[in-house]
What does this fold into?
Amino acid sequence: KRVFRRHVDRGTTASVQAIMSIDLSDLEAEVLPIAIAGYLLKKKTKGLGKFSPLAWAKRYFVVNNLESCVTYAKSESGEALKCIPYENILSCKADKSDKKRCRFKLLTKVTDQEHRVYDLQAEAPDDTVKWIACFRKIGKEHREEGLRRAHAVMKARCSIMGVDPADVGVPEMGRDSPMSPTPDEDRKGTR
It folds into this structure.
């Protein structure tokens, strides 16, 4: 607050306004290269029976903003076994069958027709909430960015053809737009 007042008092309001207009989300990757990292238990998809305690493997997960992907490895210093691009994260939900409230499911897209569910477990319910919130935020931001890009492309094509976007059914981007998440989807982090 003192720095801000000092600049305003010196009459440099233009530079202060420029600094204040910076969108911090644009700088998130540089400021917070790792959004969250830590050990989670990941349910194995092959081999042992699904109810066996040996069906769970401890993996070190990293949500990496610089590379826009989620990776996991056998250890913190180990080589990544898998990289899941942010745009492939579809949803993340708590596992309601878990009485300890530590398990959750991460739904990802493998191809346009194929999806994969990662069954994950954190050490404590508070950790579970943090991981779910992080995965939901990532998925939502990338879906919204994709919608904005698609909308911009549709409007540009209409402009090139000399057609009013509203005449051909291109909706406006806004809160009530069919291209925006509904308030329900916004709260749930789904879509």
